[in-house]
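Researcher: Checking consistency across runs. Here is Dinitrogenase iron-molybdenum cofactor biosynthesis domain-containing protein again:
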Amino acid sequence: MMRIAIPLADGDVAPHVGHCRSYLIADVEDGKVVHTEEVANPGHGPGGPPPVFLANQGVNLVLAWGIPQHARELFRRHGVEYIVGCHGEARRVLQDYLAGTLKLTDQGLEGDGCSCH
């Protein structure tokens, strides 16, 4: 089984992996979504910073628009892969990823993969 997390902003992929209100977490088996849940982002509170929190949730892959360098390093340290440049409605991004048709963008992304720093 694979667990995929997507930072959410009103159903779309949030612009920042750590500053979203919640994450869509999907359990995937044999290329199909078998369960989804929305999990609140604890911020930098209980559970550690968002990359550590997601790793502790068993997430293997994060589909995001932007991830700053320090968060990328935390994901790597915890064995969580990530894809940046994802945009649009989160459930569509998930389906496109699973279908192999995910289109990425770097529009608005700066050097560290986050336009907010």
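Researcher: Does this match what you'd expect to see?
Model: One thing to look at in this run: Strands lie at 2-9, 12-13, 22-29, 32-40, 61-63, 81-83.
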